[in-house]
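User: I'll paste a sequence; please echo it back and then give the predicted structure.

Assistant: Echoing your sequence first, then the prediction.
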Amino acid sequence: MTGSLHSTVSLDHLGEILAAVPHLLGFQPEKSLVLMAVSDLSAKPVFGFTLRVDLPPPGHEYEVAEQLLSGAVRSQRADSVVAVVVGEQPGDRPPDEPEPPPWDPPHRRLIEVVREILGCAGTSVMHAIWTSEIITGRPWICYDEDECRGAMPDPQISPVGTATAAAGAVTFGSRAEIEALVASEPAGELARRSARLDALTEDLEAERGPHEGLRQNLELVTAAIRRTARGAALTEDDHLRVMLAVSDPRVRDIALGTSIGPAARAAEQLWLTLVRKAPAPELADVAALLAFSAYLRGDRVLAGIVLERAEAVRPEHSLTSLLRRSLEVGLPPSKLVVLARDAAEDARTLLQEDGAW
C-alpha cells in the first residue's frame, strides 16, 4: 500500500485496475494473490488497503483465505474486494513460446475459497481476475464471465502510475529489490562496527552524567537529521553515536516525531543508512524508526521488510511488536500519527520528571 495517491480509476475498466496493482503495492508482484479493498459502494467507491500473499500450493487455500480475513479485511470492514491472481498456469512455458489466451484461468479453487471465507464476514468479491504478469500487453481474464477479458495497458502511464510518479514514489521491479535496499553490509564490517560501539559506549559512560547524556543524545540525533537534510556527509563516528542515542527508548520515542514534521524525508534517509550499517542489537531500534516512517507515508511493504529484520535480532522489541500488530490489522497511518505524538510527549514528560529536559 502506497501513500495518499489521489487518482480516479473506473471500476468498469479492469485493465486499469490491474495496472494499478504494482503501484499500490510498491513493487511488481509475482505468483501472488492480491486483494484491493473497495468501500462506499452506495456512493462513490473508494479503494482502500491492498494486501498481497504468495499463491498457496493446492490444498492450502483455506489457510491463506483465513489468514487474510484475520487481518486488515476484518479490522477495516471492507465492503468488497477486487481479487487479482498473478501467476503462470500450472507448468512453465518455454521462454520462446507465446502465451495463449486462457479460457479457464488457473487457481479457480483459491478464488472460490476466498469468496466463501470473506462472504461469511460480510465482504463480497466484486471482481476476480487472473493474469500471468502485470506488464504491458499481457492478457487478463475474469473468473466469472468468459467475455470479460482484455490486454494489459501500460502500468507506467496508467492513472495510478502517473499519480505515483507525480508523488515521487518508486515502484520496484520486485520485492527482492526492496530487500536489497535495506540489506546489511558485509558481516566483517558489522563485526568491526560492533566492537567500535562497545568501546564508544564505555567512553561515553565515563565522560557523561545520566542527565547530560540524555540531552546530548537528543541534540546529536537532531543535528544528524539536519545535516542529512542539507546533504552534508556524516562520518562513521556520527553514525555510531546516533545508533547509541536511539537505543535509549526515550530518545527513540522522541525521534518518532520526526516522521510527522518537515524533517521526515531526511530522518528516513538517516534511518535507511543506519539500517544497512547497524549490527545487532542496535539494528532493532533504527529498523523500528525506519519502519515507522515508511508506514506513516503508506509504504507498508518496506515497513514489513524492515520489521522482519528487527524481529530476527530482537523479537521482544516493544516498538517492533506494536508496529507488527498495526500492520496485521491494517491500522491507518493517521492512527500512527497520534501514537508518535503521544510517545514523544510521554518521553518528554519522563525526561522532565527526571530533571533531564
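The first helix runs from residue 14 to 25. The mean pLDDT is 84.
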